[in-house]
Amino acid sequence: MEKPAVGRSAATCGWRALLLPQLNRQSLYVYGSEVAVEQECVRQLESGVFVIHPFSLMRSYYIMCMMAITFLNLIGIPMEIAFLDENSGLAWEGFNVFSDTLFLIDVALNFRMGIIAEDGEEAILDIKQIRSNYLRTWFVPDVIAAFPIGYILLFADLEYHNDDNPSKTNKMMRILMFVRILSLIRLARVSRLVRFFNEVEKVSNANLEVVRLFFRVLSLFMMIFLLCHWNGCIQYFVPMLEEFPTDCWVRKENLMNSTVIVKYSWGVFRALSQMIALSYGSMDAPTNYVEMWIVMVSMVSGCLMYTVLVANATAMIANVDPAAKEYKSKMSHLEHYMAFMKLPPELQLRISNYYQARYGGKWFDEKDIMSTVSSALKEQILAAMCSRLLRNVPMFQNRDENFIGSVVLKLRYEVFQEADVIVRQNVPGDRMFFIDHGQVLMEADSYERELCDGDFFGETCVLTRGKHLATAKALTDCRCFSLSCDDFQETLEGFPDVKKDLEQTAELSSDGGLV
Question: Cyclic nucleotide-binding domain: which residues (predicted)?
């Protein structure tokens, strides 16, 4: 959950706190720490200039609101032009005026909207730089998209309904039709929708790959929906401009006096039929060159839709679960190697099963991961996985936390398959084992014993470098951690008191060691 980066200072600023950067994953990634985000808040406050920070709470809510308004405009504008005609109603005209007003305000706010630098490492809050960047990039398209057609339509409709002169009424109807066609420029707001999606992905707290993937899928399907929606509206709009000739599809389907939903449904049906090359959307082929061009445009847009969909789906699939893909690649190389070396089928199966048990279908370079994290994080990772195993061993109980942490760093992960002999009796031992998961059978001349999760064996070997007193065989696939004798002795050098105590323990238990 996001929270303000500034404590008392933000609380005393009232509404200005909404303009300051919030503590979230993205801001912490850019600035590095909470202190750095705090300093960024102080920098903005000390500037004394009204600027909306790109990581602010107001910016996040503003983007969400504008995305919703923009999407509704991109749906409603084509429907208004194609189907509603002069019967759009006061509610829709009010929404048009509201949207135009909001987009004009958006143009003005963009001169006060902080931007993220191209390197993504800082936010630009200087008014001159913001103004210069906006004028060079999106100012002209935004002004065109925000042209207040809604106000013109509202005043023209009022004049049309208040005038009883037939000649003036006909003239006003032609003007209204021209203005409605002119309102197509508002579809340029689709660029705003794309930019809003990009900003949501960059600026919000959505820097997790799953969330990014969700926004990519959502934006892709929204664009496909808009393409089908616009195409369906065009199917009806073009015959309407021609005043519905006798051979047009609208007259053939007897839709002249149908409801808007029926007309729209038929238009979208024709559009989808042509886009997926299923049919012409009706029983007959195009009967005039205008319909023929509409069909060709629909087919081409359908091809483009397929291309974009396949390209994006391929990119998404390629970026999903890279660890599993790397594992499959490694297994493919392994299979070619085993075939080339002509290994026996039984051995090939055991090798494949080992990889499955060791990596679980995911390939990670554990050494590389551990080498890139800090020593503190490495200790915490290994402690989370193995500290409980160490606490089960008597010689590690009630020991100093620093000693336990040092031992944890020396542990190595190993996997053994069913029937594998882990150690053999009377063979010199060089490490001890901690069973994380699995079952192990200890076999000696005089006894047998089964070990399971959380058990250990070979502890006397790391203390005395003696021989194993029993054979350890895996009864199931076993995941273990091992501690080598050399690593343990190296750790003890830094803890002389512990070393002395363990040497005394080794002398007492040398005759009764388990393995």
Answer: 395-500
User: Domain range spanning residue 86?
Assistant: 15-190
Q: Are 76 and 120 contained in the same domain?
A: yes
* Helical residues (DSSP H) of 204-288, grouped into ranges: 209-241, 249-252, 260-275
State how far the Cα of 198 lies from the Cα of 149, in Å rounded to an integer.
Answer: 27
d(CA 459, CA 33): 44
Answer yes or no: is 160 within a domain.
yes
The string of pLDDT tens digits covering residues 97-149 is 888 888 889 889 889 888 877 665 677 888 888 889 889 888 888 888 888 87
Q: Which residues in 264-298 are b (16+ Cβ under 10 Å) and which e?
A: bebbbebbbbbbeeeebbeeeebeeeebeebbeeb
Report the phi/psi class of residue 442: left, alpha or beta, with left for phi > 0 and alpha for psi in -120 to 50: beta
Q: Is residue 312 located within the same domain as residue 354?
A: no
Q: Are 87 and 196 in contact (CB under 8 A)?
A: no
Looking at the structure, tell me whether residues 116 and 174 fall in a common domain: yes
What is the spatial distance between Cα 458 and Cα 433, in angstroms, rounded to a whole number? 6
Specify whether 385 is located in the same domain as 471.
yes
255-260, Cβ contacts within 8 angstroms, sequence gap of 24 or more: 260/79, 260/83, 260/84
Under 8 Å between Cβ of 399 and 499:
no
Break the chain down into helix, strand, coil percent, rounded to 5: 65, 10, 25
Q: What is the CATH number of the domain that holds 372?
A: 2.60.120.10
The H or E element containing residue 39 is helix 34-47
Which has the closest alpha carbon to 108: 69, 62, 73?
62
Question: In whole angstroms, what is the distance from residue 515 CA to residue 509 CA?
Answer: 11
Dist. CA 442–CA 425, nearest whole Å = 10
**Cβ–Cβ under 8 Å, residues 470 and 442:** yes
List pLDDT tens digits, range 29-74: 677 677 888 888 888 888 778 888 888 888 878 888 888 888 888 8
The 3-state secondary structure of 405-437 reads HHHHCCCEEEEECCCCEEECCCCECCEEEEEEE
Domain count, the chain: 4
Are residue 326 and residue 311 in the same domain, yes or no?
no
One domain for residues 326 and 440: no
Single-letter residue type at 98:
F
Tokens matching residue 180:
């409605």
Is 475 contained in some domain? yes
The residue whose two tokens read 């009967």 is 287
Q: What does the block give as tokens for 507? A: 């002398």
- Cα dihedral across residues 463, 464, 470, 474: positive or negative: positive
Cβ–Cβ under 8 Å, residues 448 and 398: no
Q: Given phi > 0 = left and psi -120 to 50 = alpha, else beta, which region is 209?
A: alpha
Q: Are residues 401 and 312 in the same domain?
A: no
